[in-house]
Amino acid sequence: MAWTKYQLFLAGLMLVTGSINTLSAKWADNFKAEGCGGSEEHSFQHPFLQAVGMFLGEFSCLAAFYLLQCRATGQSDSGVDPQQPFNPLLFLPPALCDMTGTSIMYVGDLLIIMAQVIVAIQMVLEEKFVYKHNVHPLRAVGTEGLFGFVILSLLLVPMYFIPAGSFSGNPRGTLEDALDAFCQVGRQPLIALALLGNISSIAFFNFAGISVTKELSATTRMVLDSLRTVVIWALSLALGWEDFHPLQILGFFILLMGTALYNGLHRPLLACLSRCWRPAQDSERERLLGGSRTPINEAS
Question: What is the pTM for the complete model shown?
């Protein structure tokens, strides 16, 4: 079945904004600035604070939903139903998966496979809830953002005191130092620009992602998310943020194969091969049975 123009728009929006989201985060990581208390210049490595900013962007979708709901009051043909029953706690599990997967991806590329698995679980849960309860994409994204923003913001407090050793990227050596991040932003305004790009793009990216899940399927969303990796990789090479290694191609191939197997994309191929193999077997059987043979009991 051919995609509609709206579905093509959603797929394009997901690819573009998703690429901008990751690239803006990588741009912020490339900056160096002094921290609080006159600390030496160091890289902006604050993955959990960046994840909080991501959830803030998602949370903004909830405000957009209620604005559309107010505007649509009295319009019977509106896509936003103010009387639609909905339990927000349904989106707490996918929000937790989103929070964990995003934090892992911001921590480092070495854990990207683990993050992909968690994000896949998140997408499956979203597909189940969106289809079953017919939740508006803006409301789903905003609800996830609300849970993630509140939970991760509270977790920043203990993270400020938890020692992380070499795993940490801040001078205090703790799991996350939000105050150090704000000091660096004050000394290097371009970091704020990168974070703003991250926050704004994630809202459109998640809206497009859940809309793709609702209009098409979670499988299509996972495939598009894998293709987004190609765009990010190519632009990172062009900008000189990464060096080319031949093993990256093999790694991306393995990532695509894993995504395809997880989502069952191999089944149509196996079914096609099975249909092609069966006529060959049937024709061979007909040749064997159709040849001239002498009956065993025939008198000589």
Answer: 0.72
